[in-house]
Amino acid sequence: MNKEELIKQTAKDLFFNKGYLHATTQEIADAAGVNRSLINYYFRSRDLLFQTVYREAVESLKSQLDKVLYDNVPFKEKLSIFIDVYMKELLKYPYRESFLITEICSKNFALKEKKKSAALAHFLKEIAEEMEKGTLKKGDPIHFVFDLFALMSFPVIMTPLYQKLLDISKEKYKALIAERKQLILEKIFN
Amino acid sequence: MNKEELIKQTAKDLFFNKGYLHATTQEIADAAGVNRSLINYYFRSRDLLFQTVYREAVESLKSQLDKVLYDNVPFKEKLSIFIDVYMKELLKYPYRESFLITEICSKNFALKEKKKSAALAHFLKEIAEEMEKGTLKKGDPIHFVFDLFALMSFPVIMTPLYQKLLDISKEKYKALIAERKQLILEKIFN
DNA sequence: ACTTTTGTTAACAAAATTGTTAAACATCAA
DNA sequence: TTGATGTTTAACAATTTTGTTAACAAAAGT
Question: CA angle B11-B13-B19, nearest 5°?
């Protein structure tokens, strides 16, 4: 892999996977096995590296939604696929959303970039239709989306804390998370 | 308020409420309106201030659980009270758990401190009983707890990101969150 | 009153982190 | 082979952040 890409991937691994949001350029360089100056060579500054990673994270998040949510398959099946895809990504990058949140909070993002996801908007419409049909309990489709993402993401994000509070082993916790894909699908269609 | 307490409260406000997890001692001091040296006077080092805040966050989290989950009231009512209490706290300190997670991840916590929550254990038993009775759908009580906390916390934690992705105004989002207390209770008892 | 303790501050020192530069190195086309 | 280009590195400089000190102020105790 070329080193520019390597640096980016390593940064993502530290941020999204290890949850190490405070990483210094030196720590990133060490983890990548490259000279720290290369970070400046390729990204000019630490801040620009962070911005790049941030942007790509939002992009990949949105393109993931796009990939699945536009599929022309029956709703229930689409949901099944979606949960599958999204949770796989969650296990790979549990802290991606957490990173985004901290970035948004730390820079006082007066970002004009339009981040709105068209796929999500489309998905919301589809949910509304299902509610009309009676397949789903009626209500604001946004709450349905909230519920869906919450049920998938939160236990993953909270792993280190809940392991402590519930006194569960790493393996047991992992097994519990694995069970959830099916459970969520059931719960969603109560 | 004495300044030691003021510093701590300000740090908590920055971390838990503003989501500003990178705060420097200078920024904390400025926000508190005190001289930065006072932080060293009262807490010796930045790291010890963080540790103190961390510990107190875990303690308050656990004592909150204790306060509500041991109550001797019917299960459904207890849950209603719990959701009420917990979501009120969530709105005050949306990023408390996020702070805990980043701290756990950044220090390689070889913490021997037992963090296990007895209240949660007790709550799990109660849930199991309700499942026996048929009041709740059967399953691993832990998943019930996962679901409960996920539904409450996640949309709150993700506020800045979801506002962007869904293109919702601050006020509208706030209103949506406010609606959830009731919705969660209904959903839980499907 | 004055002595001791506690709180507060600015100035300084030390450490950590980031950014820059110039030279070494590699690759490859002319 | 040369030289043009892009890559990599170490050494250095600048900046930011943290920690320490000593002086001063306020409060409390005697």
Answer: 100
Question: Does the domain spanning A56-188 belong to CATH 1.10.1040.10?
Answer: no
pLDDT in tens, A18-73: 999 999 999 999 999 999 999 999 999 999 999 999 999 999 999 999 999 999 99
Mean pLDDT of chain A: 94
A190 touches chain B (CB under 8 A): yes
DSSP secondary structure code for residue A71 in this structure: -
Q: List pLDDT tens digits, range A73-127.
A: 999 999 999 999 999 999 999 999 999 999 999 986 656 576 788 999 999 999 9
User: B3-188 adopts what CATH topology?
Assistant: Tetracycline Repressor; domain 2 (1.10.357)
Sequence-ordered list of residues with C-beta below 8 angstroms from that of B73, at least 6 positions apart, any chain:
B81
Cross-chain Cβ contact A167/B20 below 8 Å = no
User: Which of B65, B146, B188 to mutate: most A Cβ within 10 Å?
Assistant: B146
Of A95, A120, A165, Cβ closest to residue B165: A120
Burial environment of residue A98 by CB neighbours within 10 A (0 to 12, 13 to 18, 19 or more): buried
Alpha helix (H) residue ranges in chain A: 3-12, 25-32, 37-43, 46-69, 75-92, 96-106, 118-133, 141-157, 159-166, 170-188
Q: Is the CB of A45 under 7 A from strand D?
A: no
Q: Which of residues 8-27 of B touch strand D (CB under 7 A)?
A: 24-26
Q: Which nucleotides of D are covered by protein (CB under 7 A)?
A: 7-11, 16-22
**Encoding tokens for residue B99?**
């702070």
Contacts of B166 in chain A (CB under 8 A): 116-117, 120, 142, 145
Is the pLDDT at B66 greater than 70, yes or no?
A: yes
Both tokens assigned to B103: 């701290």
